[in-house]
Amino acid sequence: MPFIDTPRGRFFYRERAGHNPTLLFLHGNLGASLWWGPVLRRLPEGWRGIAYDALGHGKSDRSDELVRFSVPARLRDLIAIVEALGLDQVHLVAHSTATPVAVEYALLAPASVATLTLIGPVPFAGAPTPAEAYPLLEQLPTDRELIRQAIQASAPHLDEREMDLEALMDIMAALDPLTLPAIARGLDAWRPGDRARSLTMPVMLVRGEDDMMIEEAQAHRTLLAIPGAGQLELLHGAGHSPMLETPDGLTELLIAFIAEDWEEYASIRHSVEE
């Protein structure tokens, strides 16, 4: 598997070889690019899929600078990776705590984002982390039983034929204890506000039926805040992490969404620009 050097650091990424379309996958705070393996393996022949380990995760560079885990800093990492890989237009797919980064990229470079898929998205109205949760977040990587509980809460229907639980736990155990609290503080400060009206590219929201982290009402409010969001897909037999629980169903949703004819969205863009 390859690495890429950028002005923001050295990042590890996995790739499903192909040409067009190109899907770029962003993982959440509990995971790494490995989480996207089941979906990458299921992409149609000729489709290109890229998933990278965010800073501090997996095999990518580490940092003890807490500011490097803010949403603006993680956005700059994404920009550097896109530029280093020479990507022109991508179908951006983000999970959980990475969804604000994907949203900010789509707002910054809308012409570069053909479609945007948000899985278990952070609520646009905000979902601050309780103060009492921060010590637990710091402790999490050092306690293997807590790690097991966190993964089981995120992926209650984990298909271990697709992904070994121990491998997922190893990813979390390698995190610096300050990484998760730093990400949480960055999310606490994030609010897209009225800027969400500029998300006029096709947007799909996905939520697992048994998601304990994002309530259905929160997902619906996020859907209503985005002009380009035409659908909120509910995946049965999945919690917060459908790429690990129902990879067939998630991949089918992505294929159908990306292969859709999106000419009608030109009118939405035009109306918003006016």
- Which value, in Å, is the CA radius of gyration? 17 Å
Count of discrete domains? 1
Average pLDDT confidence is 92
As laid out across the biggest beta sheet, the strand order is 1-2-4-3-5-6-7-8
What amount of the residues lies in strands? 15-25%
Question: What is the 3D form?
Answer: globular
- How many separate helices? 11
SSE series: EEEHEHEHEHHHHEHEHHH
Structural class estimated from helices and strands: alpha/beta
Kindly describe this structure.
The chain is globular. Mean pLDDT is 92; it is low at 268-274. It has 274 residues and is α/β, with parallel strands linked by helices. Helices cover 36% and strands 18% of the residues. The protein is built from eleven helices and eight strands. It has one domain: 3-Layer(aba) Sandwich (Rossmann fold). The relative contact order is 0.15. It has helices spanning 37-40, 71-85, 99-108, 134-139, 144-154, 165-173, 179-188, 216-225, 242-245, 247-258, 265-273, and strands at residues 3-6, 9-16, 22-26, 48-52, 90-95, 113-119, 203-208, 229-235.
Please give a quick description of this structure.
The chain has 274 residues and is of the alpha/beta class. The chain has 11 helices and 8 strands.
Topology:
Layout (H helix, E strand, L loop, with lengths): L2 E4 L2 E8 L5 E5 L10 H4 L7 E5 L18 H15 L4 E6 L3 H10 L4 E7 L14 H6 L4 H11 L10 H9 L5 H10 L14 E6 L7 H10 L3 E7 L6 H4 L1 H12 L6 H9 L1
Parallel strand pairs: 3-4, 3-5, 5-6, 6-7, 7-8
Antiparallel strand pairs: 1-2, 2-4
